[in-house]
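BUG: 3D viewer hangs when loading the predicted structure for this chain

Environment: internal workstation, default settings.
Expected: structure renders.
Actual: progress bar stalls at 90%.

Input used:
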Amino acid sequence: MENWKILLSVLTQSEPLRAAASNVVADYGEDVPPTVLYGGLGRALAREFGSLSPAEKVHVCDAIEEAMNSEETKLVELVATGLLETLFTTSITLFHWEHIEPFLGMRSQGYLSAWASWGKA
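Structure tokens produced before the viewer hung:
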């Protein structure tokens, strides 16, 4: 499952996400579990979304959606449980989910809708 590294290189073209990835690696070491790394990216994306240019927002969210549409189950699981769930919970806490949600694709939004509903059951 090396596609997670390819997606990581796409996501970290954005300076705030590159810095977040570096901080996670500094905290956990080079062998950081990918889920932890992607969780750090989700948290950073939630915190820094407003500072990204419109083109960066689209680029990052398109890359996330492309991964969510992958046939590689482990990549989808990593993005869903590592990045998207953390992005959602952090942005809800920061009261700006409504600014992020429109940039996400249908598969990402659908996953988070189902995930949030499951937590209420």
